[in-house]
User: Fold AhpC/TSA family protein from Stieleria neptunia.
Amino acid sequence: MKRTNSTIATEHPSWMTYVLLAAGIYNLAWGGWVVLRPMDLFDLTGIDRPLYPGIWQCVGMIVGVYGIGYAIAATDPYRHWPIVLVGFLGKSFGPIGMAYQFLVLAPGTTGRLPLQWGWVNVTNDLIWWLPFAVILYQTFKFWNAPARASEPESPSRLNELFRSQHGTTIAELSRQHPLLVVFLRHSGCTFCREALQDLREQRSRIEAEGTRIVLVHMGDDESSRSFFEAYDLGDVDRISDPECRLYRAYELGRGRIGQLFGLSVFWRGFMCAILNRHGVGKLDGDGFQMPGAFLVRDNEIVNAFRHRTAASRPDYCSVADPTVRSAPVESSSS
Assistant:
């Protein structure tokens, strides 16, 4: 279950408050300057004063209103993220418009702003891009996170609680056969789809060694049934874990920026989604949740593959090798 909005203030890094307060103060100061002294910027940059300065003063009023919005957002950035988003869009379109007129209008053309006006974009827009983008990224990550248990939970205990669509638990199944327990990313992720395709292709070899497959996913089991059936895995035991309790118990955390959006991840994602035609879908679950694969026997983890990036691609046959007797491997890479 994802976090839900409430009247309780959210916890956020203090730097977000400082950034938004600084943006609010700057906007109010700049907007007030334009309203009270509308001709200054034209005089400083050496262009003709406008015939209707009231229009330019309206721009100053709008910028000042943004300043009030940023001050409000500073009290709780995660809750007031729409204000930050609107501000980020405005700070993106301003430089785009400036660049467009520089590219389209030749020097000396009537209506072409002087190069000095680019400093307005620097102070009004460009210096705020990175902090605003990080605030929006962290906001999405915060609201997309499932509710957290107050105390750490052991995998062996949760293996006894969670049941598959067939009514059996990981603990029960692992006492009958070695289990390859595969934790998937959300169903819209192209790497999740690639993983299911790999499992379909490797299933016969895995089961020939006496190991059974169990899938753990974040979606609703009933609505996800057709998704797994599309990969001929509809009969495989699968466990719905929307709150990611099993994921956390198996020490699968939420990915960092580099693990989810690194260049190698983007390249693998392009190959997987476009060249290999796995495609992508809508977000269904925690988009930051990292996947993994584990060999479980007698309710104990005996082998583990914890993805270093979302694009890591395990050899499931190796992870599922029932002859493994060693302690868990902390992580592997593709």
Summary: The longest strand covers residues 300-306. Strands lie at 179-183, 212-217, 237-240, 292-297, 300-306.
